[in-house]
Amino acid sequence: MPPRIRLRIARQECLPPLRSESLRSSQCSYATAAAAAAAAATTPAPSISQMTSPIYPTSRHSSAQPPSHRPPEFRRSQLLRSYVSLLQSTPLILIFQHNNLKAVEWTAIRRELALAMRKLDQSMMADGRESGAVGTGVKLQIIQTKIFEPALRIAEFYKPPPRSSPRALRNMTIPSEKEDPTLTHALSESAYNAVLKKKGRHPLTPLLTGSLALLTLPTVSPQYLKAALQILAPEKPGFPAPTRKANPGYWDPAVQDGLKKLMLLGARVEGKVFDMDGTRWVGGIDGGMEGLRAQLVYMLQGFGAGITGALESASRSLYFTMESRRHMLEGEGKPIDAGGDAPKRE
Amino acid sequence: MKTTYLTSLSTTLSPFSPHGKVARLVLSLLPADARSRIAIKTTLLPRSSALTSPATLELGFKDGKKMQWRWEPKRRLKEQHDEEGRSQDEAKLKDVVEEVERHWRGLKRKEELAG
Where are the annotated segments for Disordered (chain A) (predicted)? Predict the structure, then answer.
């Protein structure tokens, strides 16, 4: 049997030149089309963890598009994903109820909030704490409570199982694609089943009815929290609103009417739930995290000095006793037999 | 909800308790410009009193009529249920809206007849 390559050459030879050219051009066009498709691909690129992890022999899907329990093409599924990632990445969330605010009022309130954040950013920069300036990340957004509730359950209660080794996966038989143990994303069936029984367990659940808005801060920074509360929920002793002279824009009717309809309900700080007073307590920590640290250092220093004093005092008193005894004995000028260590040393 | 003849609203509730839900939702049913016509007083209770203190809602109308609702915490409700020997239905949001609108219809008819 002659080799196939010869056959192909022979066939190409017998093909009319026009046909071969058209074939080549179609191949070229296919290649360019593929390149264009790769460049404008709608599928997101795999993350670094996906690229470095081994591809399991059992997976029958693209690592960028895993099968999911909730239909991924719906807006509410994507909202759920975004809420889960918001809850996992944001340590400080304030919950407000908004009662029919107009668009003008929302705009005015957001403007005032951004202004206050920018001002605080500038003062932080002036102090030389660029890393602490997080004002641009502070956002006020309206949420869908019915989707936020399962997202909260997934973020709080769903702990994905540790990834098993590829060898163990190779030996495993998986009845269906959805039961693949490597699927642990927010829309997966395992996440859904894990938090199904936790309905209504989270302490924030009673809050999640009606119209809600979230204020999200990227770090737990009491200074930023205080500045935000002074704008959104001012209270006289600890959180006074900016004065008319300092900030006339804040006293616009649009802002004031909007703020009357905005109610602070509670907060979630690093996974813990706080009510209105608790939120104000967090915002009222003087000097923020650095202030707290300074207080702790001061306290520990005092503690250390106290301990050293206490330990030192016993030996010091013994020394003084012995010294006084020696002086006494020297003054008397008598030879001593018992307890005369000090004179003997001389 | 029809709030034409509403003049005052005062409510006390704890947002962390499920029985304060209806009073909180009534606030969200008020129109955007309600604050200029209606005297609204809202008292939010802390989380510690979520299971102890009741939620209340009081509405005042132009003709002087007052409407009051009260939602007891679940634990207390059980005690009441035992003492009275019958279950006590708590007002839902729909009931509140229905009652307010019924009164609104009556007042509106009176106004039409008067002139």
Answer: 47-73
